[in-house]
Design brief:
The protein has 10 helices and 3 strands, in the order βααβαααβααααα. It is mainly α. The chain has one domain (11-293): Rhopdopsin 7-helix transmembrane proteins (Up-down Bundle). A 3-stranded mixed β-sheet has the order 2-1-3. The N and C termini lie far apart (92 Å).
């Protein structure tokens, strides 16, 4: 039992990416450009879907929600990174760290449930095409999106409560560029077994169950596609879910690499690098994966930008 006179940590220092000052400015510009690109890219998607009646379909409702999620996601992490690169303001208060951690966990868990909802949407589209409009109604889409956010934000309250209840009275140097679960718990100076157990159990509920709910429909879709006799038909059917499968694979591979692998092969530098991939690069490439080959969306975007067919002038 530690003495009562031990000073408790009231703030953390985010190590970030320690480099020479000149390289810090280059990293600032790099991440600033990436941040602005994510904002512009996803705002364009949201506004295009909102303004185009032809895109008022279940799939695009989910993609619009995903874009909103990506904007919130990067805005929770990158501004503090930019502050550290440019002004070397690496301090973050304990409360500020817990708030950032809460939104980070909430948004990650929301994406897990949202990906499962999107998998169900694709499953219905391929297995029940004639009843698709009836089954995937606007009301159901709103309920699925609402459940994704509500369940994730509720679970995160419990996770962060137990993490914040641990006592931090030693080093306050957080070897990461944002407040993440594992680096924070490594600084705890009391028994945090309960916090780890709660985190593990809730991770199964909000990560593993949605993963199963995502994989099962996708597996059925793949089997259905393989049984299509025509090669053209197989390709056309597979193209409807290929983008979703790609995003799911990238997302869960990063999650598994960071949070599931044994601590014996844990390397903090690689942790930060992979974290940068799924916190910064993933929000950039996800919309590209979904929309780069989507003719319907590209036509709607051109129309929204006034780049449609040129007017025909009478001569």
């Amino acid at each position: 039992m530690r003495g009562e006179n031990v000073a408790k940590v009231s703030a953390f220092i985010l190590v970030g990416f320690p480099t020479a000052p000149g390289l810090q400015y280059m990293l600032f510009l790099l991440f600033l450009v990436m941040y602005l690109f994510v904002l512009v890219e996803n705002l364009a998607i949201i506004l295009t879907i909102w303004s185009s009646n032809s895109l008022h379909q279940p799939m695009y409702y989910f993609l619009c929600s995903m874009s909103f999620l990506e904007i919130w996601y990067v805005s929770n992490i990158i501004p503090k990174m930019l502050d550290g690169f440019l002004l070397q303001q690496k301090h973050i208060s304990f409360i500020g760290c817990m708030i950032q951690l809460y939104f980070f966990i909430s948004l990650v868990c929301t994406e897990c449930v949202l990906l499962a909802s999107m998998a169900y949407d694709r499953y219905v589209a391929i297995y029940h095409p004639l009843r698709y409009v009836v089954i995937m109604s606007t009301v159901l889409c709103v309920q699925l999106v609402g459940f994704s956010f509500a369940s994730a934000f509720t679970v995160s309250v419990i996770k962060v409560y137990f993490i914040s209840s641990a006592t931090f009275c030693g080093s306050n140097i957080l070897n990461h560029f944002f407040c993440d679960i594992s680096p924070i718990l490594k600084l705890a100076c009391t028994d945090f077994l309960t916090a780890e157990l709660v985190d593990f159990v809730l991770a199964i509920v909000i990560l593993v169950f949605p993963l199963i709910a995502t994989v099962l429909p996708d597996a059925h879709i793949v089997l259905a596609v393989l049984h299509i006799p025509s090669a053209t038909g197989r390709w056309r059917a597979f193209s409807t879910c290929a983008s979703h499968l790609t995003v799911v694979t990238i997302f869960y591979m990063a999650m598994i690499f960071i949070y599931v692998r044994p601590q014996a092969i844990d390397t903090r530098s690689s942790n930060k690098l992979i974290s940068a991939v799924y916190t910064v690069l993933t929000p950039i490439i996800n919309p590209l994966i979904y929309f780069v080959r989507n003719k319907e969306f590209k036509d709607a975007l051109k129309k929204a930008l006034g780049l449609g067919q040129a007017p025909q002038w009478d001569i």
